[in-house]
Amino acid sequence: MEIKTKENIYIAKEAIEAKSSLQKMKGLMFSKGMDGFDAMLFKRCNSIHTFFMNYPLDILFINREMKIVKIIRNLKPWRMTRLYFSAYQALELKGGTLDERVQEGDVLEVICIN
Questions:
Q1: What's the CA gap between 42 and 90, in Å, rounded?
Q2: How far, CA to CA in Å, does 80 sit from each of 51, 52, 53, 113?
Q3: Can you give the residue ranges of every domain in the chain?
Q4: Distance between CA atoms of residues 9 and 32, nearest Å
Q5: pLDDT class for 78, splitting at 50, 70, 90?
Q6: What integer is the mean pLDDT of 2-6?
Q7: Which fold has domain 2-111?
Q8: CA 90 → CA 5, 66, 75, distances in Å?
Q9: How far apart are CA 97 and CA 114, in angstroms?
Q10: pTM (two decimals)
Q11: What is the separation of C-alpha 94 from the centre of its chain, rounded to a whole number of angstroms?
């Protein structure tokens, strides 16, 4: 799936969703990188951790209306975020890859491509 802002700033061109309980629990832990995708989406998620991560992450917390409620850039391994009660989902990208023009309050579009 592709994820971009309403202003056509691409955030991810090959995002995947963590759907199963196992995928949600494991996430990106122990991975060396994002092979074959550039972002991972977690629905029903308002806090994340980077325990057992090998690289920093850029994190977007997004509400049900697809509005970005919080951005955390370059969250280092072995950290955790606070709870963002207005968030419904979290998008994880490799640290340093999120376009600087993307800001809190931007509304996102998800385009499913098969």
A1: 5
A2: 8, 12, 11, 32
A3: 2-111
A4: 26
A5: very high
A6: 95
A7: Jelly Rolls (2.60.120)
A8: 15, 11, 13
A9: 24
A10: 0.93
A11: 9
